[in-house]
Amino acid sequence: MTHESIHIVQQNLSGSNTSKFPCWLREGSANVFGAFLAQEFYAADYERTKRDQMYAYSWGTSGVNVQGFTAAEWLKHLKDLEGNFSGGCDYVYRFAYGSGLLLSELLVADYGVASMVEFWRSFNDKSLRESFAAVYKTDLDKWYEEKAIPYLMSEYARIKR
Length: 161
Hints:
mainly alpha, 8 helices, 0% strand
């Protein structure tokens, strides 16, 4: 329920433009904020929720194990998650949920909640790359390579299934 409630907030703030969100942002930020709310109001265990979402892809049908990805494989994976998937946003393979949670967690840790809200709102009139550069003052691909991918790799090495 908390995850779906965040989608309502995203939809409202983006002017109904969540189809412009990369799947990792749409599902991952709903996961991270939904988990924060569940922890606060229902005493849910954030670390357990995080681990469960990191490995949600194993429920899908891809047969891929992201735990062993190289940096180049992560970059391709993240770029693949930038699409809308014809409205499906990765429901079948569930890659966006765990990696998106980690990316959203990193953005909130580095820039704060207000910046995430501003990021969602920026999709009213900007593309993904324009939004990211405007809010976070860096190029998205540069952020993937310098911050996001090292964080993904370290968290998947640290948190085992």
